[in-house]
Amino acid sequence: MARGQLRIYLGAAPGVGKTYAMLSEARRRMERGTDVVVGYVETHGRARTAALLDGLEILPRATRTHRGAEFTELDVEAVLRRAPDVVLVDELAHTNVPGGKHAKRWRDVEEILDAGIDVISTVNVQHLESVNDVVENITGVPQRETVPDEVVRSAGQVELIDMAPEALRRRMAHGNIYTPEKVDAALSNYFRIGNLTALRELALLWLAGKVDDQLDRYRSDHGIGGTWEARERIVVALTGGPEGETLLRRATRIAARSKGADLLAVHVTRGDALRGARPRDLARQREIVEGLGGTFHQVVGDDIPRALLEFAGAVNATQLVLGVSRRGRLAQLLRPGIGVTTTARSGGIDVHMVTHDQAHRGVARPVRDQGLSLNRRLGGFLLAAGGLPLLTFGLVNARPTLSLPSDILFFLAAVVGIALVGGMWPALFTAVAGFLLLNWYFTPPINRFTVAEQENLVALAVFVLVGIGVSVVVDDAARRSREAAKLGGEAVLLSALAGNVLRGERALDTLLGRMRETFGLTSVTLLERPVPATPDSHDDPADWRIVATVGGRPCTAPGEGDTEIPAGDGLTLAIRGRPLPAGDRRVLEAFAVQAAGALRQQRLEAEAERARPLEAADRMRTALLNAVSHDLRTPLASAKAAVDSLGTTSVDWTPDERAELLDTARQSLDRLDRLVANLLDMSRLQAGVLGIAARPLALDEIVPRALDDVGEGERVSVRLDPELPEVAADPALLERVLVNLIGNAVRHSPPGEPVLLTAGAIQDRVELRIADRGPGVRPADRERIFQPFQRLDDRDNHTGVGLGLALARGLTEAMGGELVPEDTPGGGLTMIVALPVHRRTA
Fold this sequence. Notes:
- Helix 18 (454-503) runs antiparallel to helix 19, helix 18 (454-503) runs parallel beside helix 20 (585-631) and helix 23 packs across helix 24 (731-748).
- The chain is built from 25 helices and 24 strands.
- The protein has a six-stranded parallel beta sheet with strand order 3-2-6-7-1-8, sandwiched between helices. Strands 11-10-9-12-13 form a five-stranded parallel beta sheet, sandwiched between helices.
- By secondary structure, the chain is α/β, with parallel strands linked by helices.
- Among the domains are: 6-222, Rossmann fold (3-Layer(aba) Sandwich), CATH 3.40.50; 233-354, HUPs (Rossmann fold, 3-Layer(aba) Sandwich), CATH 3.40.50.620; 374-476, no CATH class; 691-836, 2-Layer Sandwich (Heat Shock Protein 90).
- Keywords: ATP-binding, Kinase, Membrane, Nucleotide-binding, Phosphoprotein, Transferase, Transmembrane, Transmembrane helix, Two-component regulatory system.
- It is found in: Cell membrane; Membrane.
- It is an enzyme of class 2 (transferase).
- It comes from Actinomadura decatromicini.
- InterPro entries: HATPase_C_sf, HATPase_dom, His_kinase_dom, HisK_dim/P_dom, HisK_dim/P_sf, Histidine_kinase_KdpD, KdpD_sf, KdpD_TM.
């Protein structure tokens, strides 16, 4: 059976018209003869949306009971039994009431799709998993209901239902989204112009990313290699050379001319390992690219034009920016450069050749490594000097039995052997000397530097050419072998370096220590210049500050070290111990780049640590204002309404009605008093100024007072051991703890199920256990319920600001105790208050 198709209407915020668009599409399909049913649609009381349901078949919903209340959910089994062509399922990210087959509605939809039924659904951008935290930072409202991005991306069609922020606020003000009593709060909080604009941009960008994926998939499926200019994408090719910044600035200006253009920088690393651009220069150019809002990429390829064009084609680039060749004009005449070759092969991609200061100045050639050590080369010369006379003497004595070709082969073997020992120059010396010896001793006329027969002349020439060729090949092989071994060692070193940084607790010290150990140095110092450079600042310790150092006496200025490596803006590594060869600078620069990155990370972590208390305080203030705005206003409004009613002269209240109004006012003011007390205690706890007056206290003295304060003592079963020792606690604070915990347990226990309060002594503490038979709390959420202003699974804001458990734990810990939750056997949650036993002093 073919899987059903999923169509999703995506919105930036509630009220943009997703459900309306979904129902309109359903009616269009029904008019065309498609079998469409409504599985679950939430109209939110909007009349125009509800009107679209007329004439559509609505399947019955499944009813579930949770915490004494009834809820309706999508009935997946009813949908599967009905088996329509299309089913409408609103609010894809919805969390189902416990008790169903799936915890999330999107999993219900997956089951329906697997049955071959098409589904039309809706979702808001704030419910997408990848942007959930971004939305919380923008709006200050956490979104606990999320749907994985892959579910939405896998949809056959995703249509954005867009509306300007101003138009959406007008809809809100006209009462077309929320009920009138919620309009003012919504407009001043979630539905601010800035919030809506940011959410709208998020939705557009997310959908643009999905469209890009669809376009890439279509081009891949249909084998389309050409560029489709759906959006301007500018690729700038970087060599790591000094002209890179000029190219990036030019590419940025090109990208700025097209709104929404993408900037991508790419560096092609040759396939012969680590040779090429210096890591420090590439790291600097990467920072520039990312600072300009672009992305940096590296690809590997020996054919640079081909690698560039393959990358540009893969990202659907429209323009490619290259620098004018640094090679001299004669070199360009002999062989076309990368720019010319790339332009000739570019096809539909526009290529910009940008001039720069380094153009036509020539490319610095690296010094060719000799490959073999000096001792081996000297050994080759000594072997040639001693071996050739011996070989000549032996061949002269064997002249009657050997011909000239045999003599040439013996000398050729000598050339190969000496090339293997000493490399190219001893082998060249052997080839030339062998030519002369063959000519004098073995080529007629003997003992003369002339050759009588042309054939012998050709043989000697071939001997010399073969000798030279063999010597060059052997030397090149030795050099490459040595390079490969060195680069392999560097790769192992850099790999170990990266691993140590990832595992190390202090990355900067780890890096410098590793560098000192690797190169056998006395000290390694990272210096920073906090002031702009001056001509004399290089050697002046007053202009430099030591950031980190390992080993012996540190350098106080770069000039004091044997070697210095720039590590970034204002940063330099000064090395003391011995001068290091130029060949090691590549690894040293990699260390320097890593050290600069580690320093930045260390400073960012320090900044984050300093900002964390401010963030927590700001989050606390925000949560306090959001929560208290309702919980202060509700009891105040109730008390004021009761008092105003009692004070009116136009109504003759009966004694019972007057008593009821007085009781309402009293309860509201008591609630307000408890709320203010909790807030003050929480603020004193967080400020560390809460006064504790601990004294010996018997639990049977404090528990009855707490039950009286809760007001529902008949729902609590108390079992206290009469032999319990006294605890050391503050009576008022312990009563507040018990009131909050007992009230919370009573509130979550089902009707008819009593809360059990027991206590017992365990070693040097007394444990007071308050057990309910409610729904319990998942282990993953047990720490979250103790956060201030946190009400787990509570969405209506009618049960308090969520300070009870946070305050109870804070007060318990302030008295030297501990408050921990655990499961109640048989279901429910048990709060354990552990207090220290009072120790009497003699």
